[in-house]
Design brief:
With about 240 residues, the chain is an alpha+beta fold. It has two domains: about 1-100, 2-Layer Sandwich (Pseudouridine synthase), CATH 3.30.2350; about 100-220, Pseudouridine synthase (2-Layer Sandwich). About 15% of the residues lie in helices and about 35% in strands. The strands form two sheets. Strands 1, 2, 3, 4, 5, 6, 9, 10, 11 and 12 form a ten-stranded mixed β-sheet that branches. A hairpin with a 2-residue loop joins strand 1 and strand 2 (about 10-20). The longest helix has 12 residues, at about 90-100. It is globular, with a radius of gyration of 18 Å. The relative contact order is 0.17. The mean pLDDT is about 90. Keywords: Isomerase.
Length: about 240
Amino acid sequence: MVYKRLIKVHNSRLKVIYEDECLLIVDKPEGVVVNKSLTVKGTTLQESIEQLIDFTNSDSDSEYYLRKGIVHRLDKETSGVILIAKDEDSFNFLQKQFKSREVYKEYRAVVYGKIDEKVFEINAPIKRDIKNRMKYSVSDSGKDAITTFYTIKNVNKGNNMYTCLKIEPKTGRTHQIRVHLSAIHHAVVGDVLYAPKKHLELSATDFNRMMLHAHKISILHPKEYKIMEFTANLPDTFQICHI
């Protein structure tokens, strides 16, 4: 697809996928933090949105105002499509779709090792890791988490074996895809939080980022009431996954 325009964010540029009177859909680069906080250094997506959308007439206690219209999140090192609502009604309309699991999300990933199954599903609850509060882990006492995986191809790069996946998360838990893949010993390539150190060292010469990309998302438009699909082109580092 051809991107409509670029928005400068810190030392990166956001590619605008789609824009109308109530929606702004962008392709977030890897390395850009979505939400600002006291611990985050550098410009975030949220701060950039504040320069583009007028929130002065919004309720300062509303979730719309506090999140500056950003409907959902992506991890810092994950690239891809992200939705921003330009008004509170649209924000609430989209939030309801996410909460009721009516939003279709498709990711692409490169993971360590060879996966032979063409299609498989992981249904494993997730909760915050008690040993490391930065991480999440599979636990019977966690919240339900379901992810469907489709093997695109196996790739031998150098002396290392990788697998390219299409991924459809059915739920939206924090780090869900990363945790589920780590649990089956096929962590996302370059995932410094969940991949074994020896794997990270082996793949360092093959890839320079975490290989997870939010590729597509489909929603019911808040004003036109029709299903719309938005796609963030695969970054160049994902070219090895082309069939």
